[in-house]
Amino acid sequence: MRKSVTFTSDFGYTDTYAAEVRGVIEACTPDAHVIDLSHGIARGDLVACSFALLCAYMYFEEGTVHLAVVDPGVGTDRGIVTVETGEYTFIGPDNGILYEAAQRSGIKRIMAVDEGRLRKEAGSRFSSVVAQRVLQPDPSTTFHGRDIFAPLAAYIVSGAPLQDVGTQTETMKKVTIPVPEERADRIVGRVIYIDHFGNIVTNIPVGSVKRNDEILVEKGGTLQRIGKPKRTYGEGRAGTCLPVTGSRGYLEIAVNGGSAEEELGIRTGDEILVLRG
Q1: For residues 231 and 73, what is the distance between their CA atoms, to the nearest angstrom?
Q2: First-to-last CA distance in the chain?
Q3: Can you spell out the DSSP letters for 122-138?
Q4: How many folded domains does the chain comprise?
Q5: For residue 1, is pLDDT > 70?
Q6: Which residue in 10, 41, 110, 207 has its CB near the most CB atoms, within 10 A?
C-alpha cells in the first residue's frame, strides 16, 4: 500500500531545497507519495508552522507521516523527534512545531531520534545512490531537511522499527497557539497567520463572536473599526475590509478582491479587538 508523507517548511518556492527533500524521500522509498502541505511558512515562524499543521493534518488518510521542517536551530544541539498518535506520525525538530497537531490527534509515543543510529540503520536499509549520498558520516550542518529528516521520513514509511534509531521520551518542546483574552466587554486576540491571499487569521474562535460585535485592529497606533462579522467575502464592498468566518474556525479579516495584509499593514502577533455589541 502506498503511504503518504506531507511536507511543510519555510523553504519557499524559488530554491530547490524542498525538491531535494522530496527527491531523497522518493529515492529511498519509491512507494512513498510526498505531498507538499506548504513551503510558504514565514521564515522561522514556529507558530505559523504549528497552526498550518493543526489545520491540515486530519485531512489525510490514516498512516500518513507528517514531516515539518521550520528549523531556526538547524545544526545546533536541538533534538529530533517523532510523535506517534492513534492515526499519524509527526516528524520534525524538537522546537515545538509538532505539538499542537500531535496533541490534538492524541499523542501515544514520543521518540527522541539519535542521528548516528539513524544514519547507520537507514544506510543498511536503503541502497539507492541518492540514499548513500545523503547518509554519509558528515551531513550538512545547515540542511538537516535533506540529510536527516528526509531519510528519517523514508525510514518510517518503509515500516522500519523506530526503537532502532531512537529512545522513547515523555517530553517534547511545545509551541502553542495563543489563547485570546475574554473580558465582559471585549475579546483581545492576536494575528497568528496570514495566508497567500493576504487574509489575516486571528486566534479568536468564530463561536466566540456574535453578529453585533464590532471588530477593530490597531493601525499606526490608533484603533480602526473593521465592522461586524460577515459569512462570506462577497458581503463586503469590493476593496473594503471585512471580518469573516474563516474555514479553519477562526475569525479572519479580509479584503473583498484584495489583501488585508497590504491594506492594513498587519503582521503576525498584532492585536485584534472584538467589542461586544
Answers
A1: 40
A2: 54
A3: HHHH--SHHHHHHTSSS
A4: 2
A5: no
A6: 41
Tell me, yes or no, whether 106 and 18 share the same domain. Answer: yes
What is the enclosing helix (H) or strand (E) of 8? strand 4-9
Tell me whether residue 174 is in a domain. Answer: no
Residue 244: DSSP 8-state: E
Bridge partner list, 110: 83, 169
**Co-location of 163 and 254 in the same domain:** no
Provide the b/e sequence for 94-131 (b: ≥16 CB within 10 Å).
Answer: bbbbbbbbbeebebeebbbbbbeebbebbbebbeeebb
Query: pLDDT per residue over 162-202, tens digit each?
Result: 999 999 999 999 999 999 999 989 999 999 999 999 999 99
Same domain (yes/no): 111, 242: no
Reported pTM = 0.92
Distance CA 2, CA 157 (A): 9
The residues near 93 (Cβ < 8 Å, ≥ 6 apart) are 69, 70, 71, 73, 74, 78, 79, 80, 81, 144
The whole domain housing 125 covers 4-169
Closest of 97, 101, 102 to residue 41, by C-alpha: 97
